[in-house]
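Structure (tokenized):
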């Protein structure tokens, strides 16, 4: 599962909408699962998408939504959809407009996963949910991934949620990929280094300075290295995922010469 992070306006929603075919690129090309997005019914069937507001039809019942999903998707898994609704305790006869925010999000997720997509795109689907509803949503998502081995891209500002479910991370800033990689590897190669005030250029070779913050007597660096380097002149400690994400999203203190790792999304 891939976690997609970035400040507001970074391009997360644009990227996901390009990937599912809701938007067309103004330049360049997009390829998803080997084909252009929305290139035909077969390609559309491979991709599931849940937008931030978990859109549903307020006047239709839950059962109406499932019947609509079955008619629109040739690969519809009725057993999967019915089982999810039953396990969630949602009344199939209830109108979507009368559901709670968490129930609407679960209904939207059910419609997306019952397509049996190869790629599931989620655009901040839990942003407006309370902690319990978020936990239930993520639990259902993890069950789907474990059982059907689908690829999921989950956009979220809630790093704690991403830490629970994601094994890969992409950080977008100003439509550029600032960081991408396996979460365990990223955490194993980023460190906070605190020392007496000094320039980043004076650090040993093999320490790539990502961020530098200086006070009158002290310097704090976030560095990237294959392993921790022990020196009595400084304190070097690992980062947690939230610190890692904030380091790359916050332009304040960015090390001179720092560059994104990919071209901008256009």
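Design, position by position:
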């Amino acid at each position: 599962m891939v976690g997609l992070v970035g400040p507001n306006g970074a391009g997360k929603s644009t990227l996901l909408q390009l990937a599912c075919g809701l938007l067309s690129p103004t330049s360049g090309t997009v390829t998803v699962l080997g084909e252009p997005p929305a290139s035909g019914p077969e390609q559309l069937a491979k991709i599931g998408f849940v937008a931030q507001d978990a859109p549903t039809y307020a006047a239709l019942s839950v059962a109406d939504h499932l019947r609509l999903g079955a008619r629109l998707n040739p690969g519809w898994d009725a057993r999967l959809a019915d089982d999810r609704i039953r396990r969630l305790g949602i009344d199939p006869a209830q109108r979507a407009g009368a559901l709670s925010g968490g129930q609407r999000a679960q209904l939207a997720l059910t419609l997306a996963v019952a397509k049996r997509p190869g790629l599931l795109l989620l655009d901040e689907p839990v942003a407006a949910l309370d902690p319990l509803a978020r936990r239930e949503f993520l639990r259902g998502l993890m069950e789907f991934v474990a059982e059907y081995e689908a690829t999921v891209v989950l956009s979220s500002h809630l790093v704690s949620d991403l830490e629970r479910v994601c094994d890969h991370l992409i950080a977008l800033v100003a439509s550029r990929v600032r960081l991408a990689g396996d979460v365990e590897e990223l955490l194993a190669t980023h460190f906070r280094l605190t020392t007496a005030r000094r320039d980043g250029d004076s650090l040993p070779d093999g320490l790539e300075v990502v961020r530098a913050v200086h006070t009158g007597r002290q310097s704090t660096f976030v560095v990237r290295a294959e392993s921790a380097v022990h020196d009595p002149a400084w304190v070097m400690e690992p980062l947690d995922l939230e610190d890692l994400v904030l380091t790359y999203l916050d332009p304040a203190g960015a090390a001179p010469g720092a560059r994104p790792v990919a071209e901008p999304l256009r």
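Reviewer-requested clarification: The chain has two domains: 2-182, 189-249. The longest helix spans residues 131-148.
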